[in-house]
Design a protein that fits this description.
The chain has about 90 residues and is α+β, with helices and mostly antiparallel strands. The protein is built from two helices and seven strands; from the N terminus they run ββααβββββ.
């Protein structure tokens, strides 16, 4: 079993069009590193030297990861991670 990561449309060119990909890791940071090994450039679009990028929202089992440890949030097989770009408008 693996961790399912749902990919937003804007990042799908990095996953060959896949709406969801599977990954492994014990933390969100490890998961993003694992995914970057198969989908180069993905991690850089999500993380900078300060942590999660400001305009990227990440949910672990529908809970905002910023409130449960950010990149240090524990993940496990069977979990679901959703990546959503923040949207602004008027």
């Amino acid at each position: 079993m693996a961790i399912e990561v749902r990919i937003p449309t804007i990042l799908r060119p990095l996953t060959d069009g896949a709406k969801a990909v599977d990954g492994k890791g014990g933390t969100l940071d490890e998961l993003f590193t694992d995914l970057d090994g198969r989908h180069p450039g993905l991690r850089a679009r999500l993380v900078d030297d300060k942590g999660l990028r400001k305009f990227v929202n990440v949910y672990l089992n529908d809970e905002d990861v910023r409130f449960i440890g950010g990149l240090d949030a524990a993940v496990a097989d069977g979990d679901s991670v959703t990546i959503l770009p923040a949207v602004a408008g008027g």
